[in-house]
Specification:
This protein has helices at residues 27-38, 50-58, 79-88, 106-115, 127-177, and strands at 20-23, 44-47, 67-71, 73-74, 77-78, 97-101, 119-122. It is an alpha/beta fold.
Amino acid sequence: MHHRATPPTTSPDRSALGPIMIVEDDPTQRMVSATIAGQTGHPVVEVADAPTAMRLLADPHAPSPALVVLDVDLDGASGLDVLRAIREQPRHHTLPVVLLTGHDDVQARIGGLEAGASDYVGKPVHPQELRARIDAQLRATTSWRQVIDADLLQRSRLAGTLARAAAATEGDRLRTAV
């Protein structure tokens, strides 16, 4: 008897705000990836071509995605060009990008990772594997945000303590001078 673990309905770590962007020119693969990404509880934005993806990602008024699932072989363009454009934008330096490709050889994986991919999945994509990789990337993003938030809170408390100490010292100096 085979017992399969059922993935949770939503990802356990959803503090990474923003939609998951699926950039895939094949409508069937885009639908499958969007369905899997939608199970996380995040909204999903589906994009069929590189120029549209680059325009959306370059828009400073658009919400930054929580994660991008990006096909390498897009009609008329390379997903690696989209990836490089993403990494050129300071606000997207840490944006998780999962590359999907039918070229699952070592050189292709190295090229994708060198271009800035966070993860790399060869096609055909197993739905549970893609979901696990999306969840892992969201979990990492959430963990870093928690570390940064805790550090900022600690610094804020320290700054408040120093400000109160400085004010008390200044008050003592003024009372002694009078």
